[in-house]
Amino acid sequence: MYRDLEAASPGAPSRDVLLVSAIITVSLSVTVVLCGLCHWCQRKLGKRYKNSLETVGTPDSGRGRSEKKAIKLPAGGKAVNTAPVPGQTPHDESDRRTEPRSSVSDLVNSLTSEMLMLSPGSEEDEAHEGCSRENLGRIQFSVGYNFQESTLTVKIMKAQELPAKDFSGTSDPFVKIYLLPDKKHKLETKVKRKNLNPHWNETFLFEGFPYEKVVQRILYLQVLDYDRFSRNDPIGEVSIPLNKVDLTQMQTFWKDLKPCSDGSGSRGELLLSLCYNPSANSIIVNIIKARNLKAMDIGGTSDPYVKVWLMYKDKRVEKKKTVTMKRNLNPIFNESFAFDIPTEKLRETTIIITVMDKDRLSRNDVIGKIYLSWKSGPGEVKHWKDMIARPRQPVAQWHQLKA
């Protein structure tokens, strides 16, 4: 009977339709009631998703790391576009509930995208950037041999695109010339101040050199940045076996500089004692011995001596030095030096210990340094305080040499 009535009146609503309408009406009523709490809900939801955002942004968060990694992958990977489609509006309450979560995802994606823009875009770019950091410039030089005079001629012409080693953004380059493995044949150019593209045009003669010995040597060029008060910084090096060069006439070369092989490693240790006498206002520095010094010469050794500078408020007051120990990486000095230091000036005083390698034909090389004062490194400060705490007693301690 019900079905016949429905068939007879096709325009009348069915019982199912009326039931659905009633449910929608009740839902809308509940929605109206809940809207009264809208402000409170937003505060609660905002607080909850604010905590979620902080969790995502934490560096230790596993989710944060995985999303950054995913965005670095090529397009089509795990990155998801959470931006709304133009013209689309939310149709139900569930869309509004998920909106804070979409905002969190958008913010994470935005931050990660900025990081991606600031960082190299691929591993290939990173590798290329690493290679560019190794660009040390290049050097032009000539070499030839005069058979009649038994003389090898080396001309240092110029260098280009040298890296800046000084804080001013430039360098003071010069070149050392060796015939390996002989130390005694080391020569060097003049220093070109504040110049990353220096022109030397200097000629060096190695006279009385039989040809059969010349072809057993390696021409070694080392470019350095000159520093007046500290160790010269190595810039780069070039080496050419002379048996591979046609020496019958002057040959000119352009060679890229390579990292210097002697720029790292331990510099050795120095044992010294300090003795403070407050009544005499003096400090006695005893340079006892060194061990495992860095070999600065081509022959695998050094000719060390020690300089001791007394500094007051960064001004040099007095200098003393030991004798030179020939070809010795574990020298024993046992030399003492006394410095007059008033007690009131002790806190502003620094004693600089510099171990040097003596060179007869060129500048002496710095092997390593030690700074002794109230404000030096932990080991140096300990030695200084022990000296003050034990007046009139020599206090000995080993120190690692630093560049």
Automatic annotation (TrEMBL):
Subcellular location: Cytoplasmic vesicle, Phagosome membrane; Cytoplasmic vesicle, Secretory vesicle, Synaptic vesicle membrane; Lysosome membrane; Peroxisome membrane
A molecular function (GO) term: calcium-dependent phospholipid binding
Keyword tags: Calcium, Calmodulin-binding, Cell membrane, Cell projection, Cytoplasmic vesicle, Exocytosis, Lipoprotein, Lysosome, Membrane, Metal-binding, Palmitate, Peroxisome, Phosphoprotein, Repeat, Synapse, Transmembrane, Transmembrane helix
Record domain C2: where: 135-255, 266-399
Region described as Disordered: 74-106
Similarity remark: Belongs to the synaptotagmin family.
Name under which the protein is recorded: Synaptotagmin-7
Lineage, opening ranks: Eukaryota, Metazoa, Chordata, Craniata, Vertebrata
Basic and acidic residues composition bias: residue spans: 90-100
Topology class, membrane: Single-pass membrane protein
Organism: Piliocolobus tephrosceles
